[in-house]
Amino acid sequence: MDNKNIKEIVVCNFVGMYVDALTRGKEYEVLAENEEKHQIKIVGNNGRTRWFKRNLFLPAGSNVTTMVSWQYDDDIKDRSEKSLEHVEVTITFSSGEKRWCSLCTKYGLFDYIERNMEAFMLSFFIPTNHASIK
Question: Beta strand pairing status for 32-34 and 27-30?
Fold first, then answer.
């Protein structure tokens, strides 16, 4: 086991299951490294020192895209949990890219699936002549 002390800064690229300890895009100082296990020791956001897999991090200065902001593109007319509305949202990232998505309640999703299930089932189960089974 190689547990040498080093002076290195890394940036978190993937939080994984460590949402209380890591922040995507944040820099951390490496306190030690175990090359055999591919792990580095850092102090997480929760103040605890622990070992993390090296592949969760990139070298300092690496560009890690993070979400900067989001906004509703539609007015929300029905705020109840049984709303059938689908609301469009625009998300802006640190790279300048923008992405669009649609949000709905579980009732809105069930309603959408129910209204479109027949078309889905027809397209899924239409027989083709690509292969014959004997």
Answer: unpaired
The 10s digit of each residue's pLDDT in 32-71 is: 999 999 999 999 999 999 999 999 999 999 999 999 999 9
The CATH number of the domain where 20 resides is what? 2.30.30.40
User: Which portions of the chain are predicted below pLDDT 50?
Assistant: 1, 132, 134
Number of domains in the chain: 2
Structural domain range at position 40: 3-59
Count of CA atoms in the C-beta half-sphere (13 A) of 94 = 8
pTM score > 0.85 for this model?
Answer: no
